[in-house]
Design brief:
Elements: H1 2-29, H2 35-58, H3 63-77, H4 80-92, H5 96-125, H6 138-162, H7 166-191, H8 199-229
Helix pairs in contact: 1-2, 1-3, 2-3, 2-5, 4-5, 6-7, 6-8, 7-8
């Protein structure tokens, strides 16, 4: 029963993440080609490989955690059925080349992504030099990321409500991203002070928090705009 609950919770979060990410990609690149579905599938495959290596080689993860992340979240985040449906739609519309390209890219890129995730994860997590990864405050980090996601969503909602100019929106989001990146980096470095990290390791943490921060702020703004479009809380 605990595993079923974990899968349900992870799956609900993964489905929401897929909706936000795919629609964000479509808003950026258009719907002439199923870029959104391709992106979520490729990124989900990379995450599957990387997190599988993490849980098998670095941590003896609790079964419920593995079920929530690998089966629930990533299972709902990626979607084979949507890929198949969009491919059929392309064929019905006479886009045989686009359909063939979608099949080729989805198959090859997903296999490459999961392989790269496994290789990178095994290389990192099997190395004793990265033993400090065991002591990262993962739960607190996730809570912090959730807070910044909600702040970005609130900011996007306020932008729409007050009709703030694009320039001020960009400045606000950049500041939010900077605060997120700097605070996470300093906090992690403080937590790992006893390990006397090398400069390149600190820079790696900074780069990772930058990437995570950009994704969190982007998803948060998409979520806030979506709430506005639903005419909620106006």
């Amino acid at each position: 029963m605990n595993q079923l609950l974990a899968i349900a919770l992870g799956g609900s979060a993964g489905a929401v993440a897929r909706f936000l990410v795919a629609n964000g990609v479509y808003a950026w690149l258009g719907r002439a080609f199923p870029f959104g579905t391709l992106f979520v599938n490729v990124s989900g495959c990379f995450a599957m490989g990387f997190l599988t290596a993490l849980m098998l080689q670095r941590f003896t993860a609790v079964v419920e955690y593995r079920a929530a992340i690998l089966i629930g979240f990533l299972g709902a985040y990626t979607t084979f059925s949507t890929f198949a449906l969009e491919t059929v739609y392309l064929i019905e519309d006479g886009g045989l080349r686009k359909a063939a390209l979608n099949i080729f890219l989805s198959t090859v890129l997903c296999l490459v992504a999961v392989s790269l995730g496994l290789i990178l994860g095994r290389k990192i997590f099997a190395n004793d030099a990265y033993r400090w990864l065991d002591d990262l405050p993962y739960i607190e980090m996730m809570l912090g990321i959730l807070v910044f996601f909600l702040l970005a969503a609130l900011a996007a909602f306020v932008f729409q409500r007050l009709n703030i100019t694009v320039e001020r929106r960009v400045i606000t989001l950049v500041l939010l991203l900077g605060v997120l990146t700097l605070s996470l980096t300093l906090w992690i470095a403080f937590k790992l002070f006893d390990f006397q990290l090398e400069v390149q390791e600190i820079l790696g943490i900074l780069a990772t928090t930058n990437l995570v921060g950009m994704m969190v702020v982007w998803l948060g703004t998409l979520f806030g705009n979506w709430l506005w479009q639903l005419n909620l809380l106006r």
